[in-house]
Write a structure and sequence with these properties.
Strand order of the largest sheet: 2-3-4-1-5-12-6
Radius of gyration: 25 Å
CATH topology of the largest domain: D-Maltodextrin-Binding Protein, domain 2
CATH architecture of the largest domain: 3-Layer(aba) Sandwich
Bound molecules: phosphoribosyl ATP, zinc ion
Helix content: 25-40%
Number of strands: 16
Largest sheet: 7 strands, mixed
Distance between the termini: 46 Å
Strand content: 25-35%
CATH class of the largest domain: Alpha Beta
CATH superfamily of the largest domain: Periplasmic binding protein-like II
Length: 291
């Protein structure tokens, strides 16, 4: 049996285990693409979608897609753009958000990129850092190390580091301060440059599903009871996409008002809605949204 023989039109490579794994599989599941992988095999065929998945280390995924072993991949932009590659970004996925930053010891004076001239910078991202330094004509040496970058200044291996940051607590606990953001990154769906017509059709179908799930994640559905005389005032407060839906309640003089708001808008408008007379407010997540 040839293990490498394809049985599906598309092959998508995702991270085997790590920060992007669960979010990648959750997104596919929300798109109606379920994958059973009982024995943690390195490949699995999706149910109800003409695609199989390869489970790989994230660093290997861009190369496999560029070489055509897989047609699509999901990795962070930090991994994807570390080297220049013949691939195309299909869609940004909104998870795995972080930044690639330069950090220096807390007590080191820092007055901008010029302060890095002649510095030794430890990083796992020599490509991205090298390009950033070149663009600013900063002569510094880059020490490529594969892990535990944050301890390099403390043990005398480097004067500065360039590493991924999300909350910033790793930097703080190692006595470092963030001084430059080199890139902001999130997980992306990307593909090899030459897809067949049939593959392009399937990628379009997959992207359509992903968009409807990702858009929905940004919004909330809001319902409330409003005295009829306050409907215009409430409608003016609601920042929804279109005019809200208004339906009469069984109780005379009251209506149920429905609208869609972004996740962060609710706390800004709740007091105004209450003051206008709205009661019994419900805010729920939306699963899919097609605009
Ligand atoms: O085994 P494999 O090679 O597949 O995985 P990996 O160990 O290389 O990667 P993994 O699973 O750690 O991360 C996968 C991707 O998640 C990264 O390439 C980023 O795109 C994204 N991501 C998002 C992060 C972080 N946030 C993050 N905080 N990757 C790593 N970190 C690390 C960072 O390197 C540092 O050590 O977390 C620490 C900093 O976190 P804070 O919160 O203390 O600032
Ligand atoms: Zn990795």
């Amino acid at each position: 049996m040839n293990e490498n023989k394809r049985t599906t039109t598309l092959r998508l490579a995702v991270q085997k285990s790590g920060r992007l794994s669960d979010a990648s599989m959750d997104l596919l599941a929300a798109c109606g693409i379920k994958v059973s992988r009982p024995d943690r095999k390195l490949r699995a065929v999706a149910d109800h979608f003409d695609m199989e998945l390869l489970f790989l280390r994230d660093d290997d995924i861009p190369g496999y897609v560029e070489d055509g072993v897989a047609d699509l991949g999901i990795v962070g932009e930090n991994v994807l753009f570390e080297r220049e590659r013949d691939i195309q970004v299909v869609h940004r996925l909104g998870f795995g958000k972080c930044r690639l930053s330069i950090a220096v010891p807390r007590d080191m004076p820092y007055d901008g990129p010029e302060s890095l001239v002649d510095a030794d910078i430890a990083t796992s991202y020599p490509g991205l850092l090298g390009r950033w330094l070149d663009e600013r004509s900063i002569g510094a040496s880059i020490h490529e190390i594969s892990g535990s970058v944050e301890i390099a200044p403390g043990i005398g291996l480097a004067t500065a580091i360039c590493d991924l940051v999300s909350s910033g607590s790793t930097l703080i606990s190692n006595g470092l301060k963030e001084v430059e953001v080199i890139m902001r990154s999130e997980a992306v769906l990307f593909s090899k440059s030459a897809l067949t017509d049939k593959q392009q059709e399937l990628v379009a179908a997959l992207t359509f599903r992903m968009k409807s799930v990702l858009t929905a994640r940004k919004y909330r559905y809001i319902l409330m009871n409003v005295p009829n005389q306050a409907i215009d005032q409430v409608a003016a407060i609601l920042p929804g996409m279109k005019a809200p839906t208004v339906m009469p309640l069984a109780e005379e003089g009251w209506s149920s008002v429905h609208s869609v708001i972004t996740d962060d808008q609710f706390w800004d408008i709740i007091d105004q809605l209450k003051a206008a007379g709205a009661e019994g407010m419900l805010v729920t997540p939306i699963e899919k949204m097609v605009l």
